[in-house]
User: Which sequence fits this backbone?
């Protein structure tokens, strides 16, 4: 990698952290608002009395993690699509603005850590919008992959990178993953509504279930896509090492 390329990579990394910082501000403020609960859990935790607070704090932690991962990985994907799909439509700078906007909405979402109905509802809406945006992006990427394969003189490493992009976007069940997240988010909303409106001592268990479901929803979905991204990026890094980029 040349000094210029190294400099560009450092700037890209810096930009990701900058965007992540903007997006994480609402989440960090939410965490500060919940500091009393956090202190209570750390210093004097009682399973029977503080389980609800523990679930709320865990929701804050995983939501903030989700925000950072969204910003960093999405920016990374924009970069490698430009790099490896030579015929890809030019992605404008507004793309990063959209990334920041969605991440900020996720940050604002953290404000509602103590209202599982609103949290899960907004989370479901965000994933519903992802279904449509992902579908639109995949149309452009599919066309770009097709055009890139037609380019003469492609090296073995370049073809492997194009194949890795194809596998990630079109052979992995991306849409099914998003729809599954949406489904369990809606189930969490229903559990939250029952737990809030049902006048019974057992209603709290529905709220426990709602929080547990949305937390597991985030953890499992991120774990799965992390495995897919790791396999894809491994091909990219090996390709760069082979050609000495």
Assistant:
């Amino acid at each position: 990698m040349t000094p210029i390329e190294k400099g560009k990579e450092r700037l890209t990394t810096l930009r990701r952290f900058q965007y992540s910082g903007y997006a994480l501000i609402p989440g960090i403020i939410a965490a500060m608002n919940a500091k009393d609960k956090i202190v209570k859990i750390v210093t004097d935790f009682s399973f029977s009395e503080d389980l609800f607070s523990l679930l709320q704090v865990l929701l804050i932690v995983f939501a903030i993690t989700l925000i950072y991962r969204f910003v960093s990985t999405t920016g990374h994907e924009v970069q490698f699509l430009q790099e490896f799909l030579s015929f890809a439509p030019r992605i404008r700078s507004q793309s990063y603005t959209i990334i920041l906007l969605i991440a900020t909405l996720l940050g604002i979402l953290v404000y509602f850590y103590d209202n599982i109905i609103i949290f899960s509802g907004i989370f479901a809406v965000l994933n519903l919008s992802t279904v449509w945006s992902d579908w639109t992006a995949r149309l452009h990427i599919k066309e770009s992959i097709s055009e890139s394969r037609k380019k003469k003189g492609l090296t073995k490493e370049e073809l492997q990178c194009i194949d890795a992009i194809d596998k990630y976007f079109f052979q992995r069940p991306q849409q099914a993953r998003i729809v599954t997240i949406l489904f369990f988010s809606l189930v969490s909303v229903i559990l939250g509504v029952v737990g809030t409106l049902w006048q019974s001592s057992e209603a709290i268990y529905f709220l426990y279930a709602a929080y547990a479901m949305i937390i597991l929803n985030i953890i499992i979905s991120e774990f799965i896509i992390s495995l897919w991204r790791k396999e894809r990026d491994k091909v990219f890094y090996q390709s760069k090492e082979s050609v000495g980029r």
The chain is about 85% helix and 0% strand. Residues 41 and 49 are 10 Å apart (CA to CA). Residues 203-243 form the longest helix (41 residues).
